[in-house]
Every structure is written in structure tokens, then in C-alpha cells.
Amino acid sequence: MFTGIIKEVGKLNNIKKIKEGYELEVLSSLLTKDMSIGDSIAVNGCCLTVKEFSRGKSFKVDISPTTLNVTSFQFLKSGCAVNLEDALKPTDKFGGHLVSGHVDNVGEIISILKQGEFYKISIKIPKQLFLFIAPKGSIAIDGISLTVAQLNIINSNIDFAIIPFTFNNTNLKFKKNGEKVNLEVDLIARYILNIMQIKDINLGDLSDDLNKKIINNFYDEQILTNFKNKNEKDLILEEKLKKYGFKK
């Protein structure tokens, strides 16, 4: 789990094809000082596992062809700046929002405008992701926890107001119009939408027994019955009050 607060801007040193996928080597002087084999690290918001590292210099991770194809890694070349964040520790400050490191889709930078000391960045995103995005809500862009300033659903754009510190301490300062970025929507929004969809499912209409079992594991039948039948629920409460002498 991550928070979208970038700890270091590293450099993609190499991407090479290996037997079952690809190997990335990332230059990192800071995070590799306290790194171990098997650590989870977010590279441009994508959670990857450290398989090898040189303390104070670099680390290596593997990615599958599927991961390459659904992230911005397919567009990156050696020398590109990448955002790095190590996994959240129980004692860490929670500065951003919950970020899983599971990339949902890829967006495209439409414009980067300097406004005084601040920056306005517009990003085109797939329309289906708008279900999970709200004004003043959070979304991870290349692993950076950002607050949505404005939505433009018609043009599929979202705008962000970037403070100087965030711009100068992430890979945003190296970005140009047309470049691709990794997108991860807010986890809370994802679960809310899922609950709304599941609650409207009629279990009797499901032909797949496995789906029935999965739904029933989440929603105990007795709990569902109590919610659906308020009169029965009130009756049970009244009987308990009488039993314990609170009501005659």
C-alpha cells in the first residue's frame, strides 16, 4: 500500500526482454539505502517487487507483458524520469490517499500551463474512469496523489492545480504534452461503486452458483432479511426488551 507521496525521482536506466517478460533497472540513490529483496516499490504508481539492488545506486524489477501493455511503461525509454515510493509503514505519516499500485489505465497529458508560481495540468482519461472521479477527489497520476480541480466529461479531461513543491519534486517537471501517464482511481470510490452494483443484484437471477456463493459470503442472508423486513426486526427487539424486563 502507498499514499501517493513521491519519495524520490529516479531514472529508468534500462528495459530489456527476458524469458517470461521484461526487466527494468531503475537508478535510485535514496530508496536503495534502506531496501531489501522482495520489497514492494511503486514505479510511476505501479507496484513492483525488488528482485535485485545495489545499495545507493539502482534496483531491478520484473514486469509481465500484460503489465507493460496496460501501463505507460510501453512508452518509456532509457533515461526517463520515474516517480518512486516505497511501501507504507505503520508508523509513516499518511500524507496523500490510499494508493494500491494497481494501475487502472493510461492517460495523456493535454497541456501544462504555468500560472505564476503554480501549474495547471490537463490530462485526457478514458471515459469509464469518470465514474470514480469527483471534483476535489483524489486520483494517482504516475503514482502522485493529486486533487481534482475540475472535470470536463465532454472532452474527457481532468484539470489539476499543481503547487511548486509537487511539480519540482516529481517527474512532472520533465513531462511534455502528449506524454502518457499511469492512472489509478481512488480505492474508496471503487468500493462504493462495487457495493452499489452488488446491492441491486437479484440472487435468484444468477445462474452461476459460484457467483451466488461469493455474494452470500459478503452479505449474510440473515442480515439481508433483517434489513428487508423491518417489522420482524422490531418484533425481535420488543421480545428482547420484555425478556430482560425493560418492557411489560
Notable features of this structure?
248 residues; alpha+beta; Elongation Factor Tu (Ef-tu), domain 3; six-stranded antiparallel barrel; 35% strand
What does this structure look like?
- This protein is of the alpha+beta class and 248 residues long.
- It has three domains: 8-86, Elongation Factor Tu (Ef-tu), domain 3 (Beta Barrel); 105-192, Beta Barrel (Elongation Factor Tu (Ef-tu), domain 3), CATH 2.40.30; 201-243, no CATH class.
- It is built from six helices and twelve strands.
- The strands form two sheets. A six-stranded antiparallel β-barrel has the order 1-2-5-4-3-6. The chain has a six-stranded antiparallel barrel with strand order 7-8-11-10-9-12.
Estimate what percentage of residues fall within beta strands.
25-35%
Which architecture of the largest domain would the CATH scheme give at its second level? Beta Barrel
Span of the ends, CA to CA? 54 Å
The major beta sheet can be summarized as:
6 strands, antiparallel, barrel
The level-1 CATH class of the largest domain: Mainly Beta
Strand order of the largest sheet: 1-2-5-4-3-6
Q: Helicity range of the residues?
A: 10-25%
Q: What average pLDDT do the residues reach?
A: 86
Number of helices: 6
CATH topology of the largest domain: Elongation Factor Tu (Ef-tu), domain 3
The helix/strand class is alpha+beta
Low-confidence stretches: 218-224
Alpha carbon gyration radius: 23 Å
Domains counted in the coordinates: how many? Answer: 3
The total count of strands amounts to 12
